[in-house]
Design a protein that fits this description.
The protein is α/β, with parallel strands linked by helices. It has two domains: 167 residues, Spore Coat Polysaccharide Biosynthesis Protein SpsA, Chain A; 78 residues, no CATH class. It is 41% helix and 24% strand. It contains seven helices and 13 strands. The strands form three sheets. It has a seven-stranded mixed beta sheet with strand order 3-2-1-4-9-6-12, with helices on both faces. It has a four-stranded mixed beta sheet with strand order 5-13-7-8. The termini are far apart.
Length: 251
Amino acid sequence: MATLSVVIVAKNEERIIGRTLDAIRDIADEILVVDSGSDDKTIEISTAKGARVVHQDWLGYAGQKNFALSLAKSDWLLSLDADEILTPEAVAEIKAIVSGETAGKCYGYKIPRVLYIGDHPVRHGGFYPDAQLRLIQNGKGKFRDRMVHERIFVDGPVGSLQHSMLHYSYRNVDEFTKAMDKYARLSAEQYKQDGSKKWRANPVNELLHPIWTFFARYVLRLGFLDGKLGLELNLIYSDYVRNKIRYIRES
């Protein structure tokens, strides 16, 4: 019977990681937490929940996650962030895939993801379904080496789960704002390294692209249905687009 390894990279994740591990404990044959230097209770909690904790100095988003995948020994690998909690329905789907009950020959599966700001889910404006490829057959895929927005690439067919995982990344809007500025800077640096698409970083695009982004996400993709929070998040995301272009121009 096929087996499943769950791999998680972490640093100072005591707030959520216990719930993340509880959600997958019944389907995981192996749980690996790769820690990059926590000084809170992350390691203590992970160990108590049955995980094997391995220390690895930070290698970058993709490098750290690929290192974690390389340690896993099971037939299937599930890569989660420490603040992502699978719903019971998603757990049941994964169990069926790993056990072979679900027909199909996919090498990987995307999992829809619901963003939470504090305890408030965000279900519109392009923030959902935000499907992430996280379940793969061992040896069939890895994260592409990027500074930010790392993704798994699989050499073969990919399916999708019907049910979601819950992403408790930000405690409040201020944390989301700071993260978007960090990602804008990292994205600009990645563009610089790639040496491509820099032609898009011009004053006209810096003015118009954020406006279009806000309209597309808040109006066309129904961000307004998330109320005041939806307005705030889409304005911040539009600023992210503006800042990314500005940082590319300044680099």
